[in-house]
Amino acid sequence: xxxxxxxxxxxxxxxxxxxxELALFFSPVVIARRAVDGLGGLALGVVVAVAVAVxxxxxxxxRRRVGAALGVRVAIEAALFLAAAAGxxxxxxxxxxxxxxxxxxxxxxxxxALGLPPGTDVDAS
Length: 125
What we know:
The chain is mainly α. It has helices spanning about 10-35, 40-60, 70-90, 95-115. The longest helix has 28 residues, at about 10-35. The mean pLDDT is about 90.
């Protein structure tokens, strides 16, 4: 990536992207806790959150271990975000679900337009 594209807007978008990813990882905990009473809901949420984080780390992160094609990565990422949004909406958090999807789509599209498609390692030269 050219150095001139690493301006403040790019870094702000990357920071937003990181926050959206954290929201994705935390959403299973919120969903399960709202759907299942007691400690079981919390435990279920943590297990699903760990699974989402593992998938992200293996297939979607810039330092991923599995070299999937861009189209596959985009499809997996979309499925994870759609599942999280559906779970949030089904547990009564529709505004959060919509916000999660809107911010994800806007940030990813903008970064992609700047030459940073999903899974790009910004530090790679």
